[in-house]
Amino acid sequence: MIKKSVLAVLLGAVCLFMPIVGSHTDANAEAQAAYKAFYSADFYSGTKIQAEKETEHYPIASMCKIMTLLLCFEAEEEGVLSFDEQICVSERASGMGGSQVFLEAGAEYPAGELVKSICIASANDSCVALAERLAGSEEKFVERMNERAKQLEMNNTIFVNCTGLPSGGQYSCAKDAATMLCALMRHKKYFEFSKIWLDNMQHPEGRVTEMANTNKMIRSYSGCDAGKTGFTNEAGFCLAASAQRGTMRVVSVVIGAESSKARFEKTKEAFDYAFANYTNKAVLDANTPLDEKCPVSGGKKTEMSAKPERSCYIFCSKSDKDEIFYEIEFEKIKAPVSENDAVGYITVYKNNVEADRLRLLANESVNRLSYLDSLRQIADRWVI
């Protein structure tokens, strides 16, 4: 059975055909000289907002650590790594150099503290310590990084190390960097670390290393709560960052900026443009049952309420007039039914193009009709 519901969405109604990708003016061309590549997108739909040379290959310095962090959070979620466990730091990890928290060789540190130091201080020594714990060596860990990149369809990325330190043959692109940041942000625990501005690394022998977040935008831009900086002479100044306002989350990547100030200014410009011109229309709420009821046979109730498996937002231009509607397909459901059982699908359309498809779940339980209940129903039908 298919039911259709139409939501008329008027989002400004000024220009019906405004392009998603921003136009290039002389000012844009001048600004682009301050960086090599750029990409911004809506986090939820993946829709590109603006882009310049987004698939061209460049070194991305410490933005490589986004993949290192992703594998750490996935390992923790899978039970392979506990953030409470102690990790012994090798001589190699301790001597990495570059941005670091000066881990003591032979000392043990909680895995969670090492992860936090990467998020805040871009610690190379912590990256290698975690890589060795998860894969036995940095080389084996890098193999996993490249495997995960393929799974994420990051087709313009090759990792050679887990830190982003200069190394021949290592490259990525702005679009791929955005892809892996989006994957990392799907781990809620990441935000427990990414929003920290100042913290300390406590060393077993009593030393303290002060840490300040390299992503200055978490303090200077309202809604910015995630990201990773990068810098080497080869890569220039890089930044992958994300900001959330209301129902909209934007991801931005800048590669090869000529200065630290330039990467932050371009990111702010990207965020401002996205929030000013686009929105995510809330269509379905995971916690709100649909008005339409799902028929049930053989149960104590003949119908039940259903809900979407997750919330649904549709990316729209504020100046466009969009028609958003959904179609419901209930399966033939027989009692008994337990809450959260799958009962059908809901497909969301934007301007007659499929934009999302979700499972529908039972919002309540329905018990099977007993023999006595059946007799009562038959008797009730004969009562005049």
UniProtKB/TrEMBL annotation:
Secretion signal span: 1-23
Catalyzed chemical reaction(s): Preferential cleavage: (Ac)2-L-Lys-D-Ala-|-D-Ala. Also transpeptidation of peptidyl-alanyl moieties that are N-acyl substituents of D-alanine
Binding site for substrate: K228
InterPro entries per UniProt: Beta-lactam/transpept-like (IPR012338), Peniciliin-bd_prot_C_sf (IPR015956), Peptidase_S11 (IPR018044), Peptidase_S11_C (IPR012907), Peptidase_S11_C_sf (IPR037167), Peptidase_S11_N (IPR001967)
Presence of the UniProt keyword Ion transport in the record: no
Pathway assigned in UniProt: Cell wall biogenesis; peptidoglycan biosynthesis
Active site (catalytic residues): S62 (acyl-ester intermediate), K65 (proton acceptor), S122
Gene Ontology molecular-function annotations: serine-type D-Ala-D-Ala carboxypeptidase activity
Gene3D superfamilies for the chain: D-Ala-D-Ala carboxypeptidase, C-terminal domain (2.60.410.10), DD-peptidase/beta-lactamase superfamily (3.40.710.10)
Keywords from the named record: Carboxypeptidase, Cell shape, Cell wall biogenesis/degradation, Hydrolase, Peptidoglycan synthesis, Protease, Signal
One GO BP annotation of this record: peptidoglycan biosynthetic process
The protein's Enzyme Commission number: 3.4.16.4
Residues of the Peptidase S11 D-Ala-D-Ala carboxypeptidase A C-terminal domain: 278-368
PANTHER family (alphabetical): D-ALANYL-D-ALANINE CARBOXYPEPTIDASE (PTHR21581), TRAFFICKING PROTEIN PARTICLE COMPLEX SUBUNIT 12 (PTHR21581:SF6)
Function field: Removes C-terminal D-alanyl residues from sugar-peptide cell wall precursors.
Family in the record: Belongs to the peptidase S11 family.
Protein name in UniProt: serine-type D-Ala-D-Ala carboxypeptidase
Annotated organism of origin: Candidatus Borkfalkia avistercoris
